[in-house]
Amino acid sequence: MRVDLLTKEIMRYESLLNAEGGAFAQTKSQEKQKVGTLLKEKERLEKALRHECDGSLPYSLAPKTLGRLLEQINREIQIKQASSFEKELNQFLLELKNDISFRSGTTGLIAAEAIEDNLKDFLASKPKGELLFDISEREAGMIEQSFEQDIKKS
């Protein structure tokens, strides 16, 4: 009798455990599916965000900063052009001085000094400074065009 009573009680506990454990297993499976779905959605959203931020959208959200960046790029292009022009001009001036001193006397030297002084004044008005980005005119144009296109899109 005692064995029958214990057997019945064991069976009752087993059925309770199966009922509760079965519900837990079913819930666990559903929760795993939810996690999988949420992870896929998160991945999709991250990919979409990266795609949006790949272009110049972040810059279009900060127009003042974008304006300063484009101004700096244009200023650097002018500095590079002026620097290149000055180097070529100095080389030409050196050749001119040598030619003048070889061909003529004092009048030539006075003329060379006058030319040099005027060129120095001219070059003093040209932009000078350090280059932060040191990019080519082509690259600067591509950046500016990219920003303009993205701004039109938004």
Notes on the protein architecture:
The protein is mostly helical. The protein has 5 helices and no strands. The N and C termini lie far apart (84 Å). The mean pLDDT is 81.
> Overall 3D geometry?
rod-shaped
- The total of helices stands at 5
Helices and strands, in order, run as: HHHHH
How large is the radius of gyration? Answer: 39 Å
The mean pLDDT is 81
How would a textbook summarize the main sheet? none
- Poorly predicted sequence stretches spanning 5 or more consecutive residues: none
Amount of beta strand = under 5%
Structural class: mainly alpha
| Share of residues in helices | over 70%
Number of strands: 0
What is the topology?
Elements: H1 2-54, H2 57-60, H3 63-103, H4 106-124, H5 137-153
Helix pairs in contact: 3-4
What attributes characterize this protein structure?
154 residues, mainly alpha, 87% helix
Short description:
With 154 residues, the protein is mainly α. It has five helices and no strands.
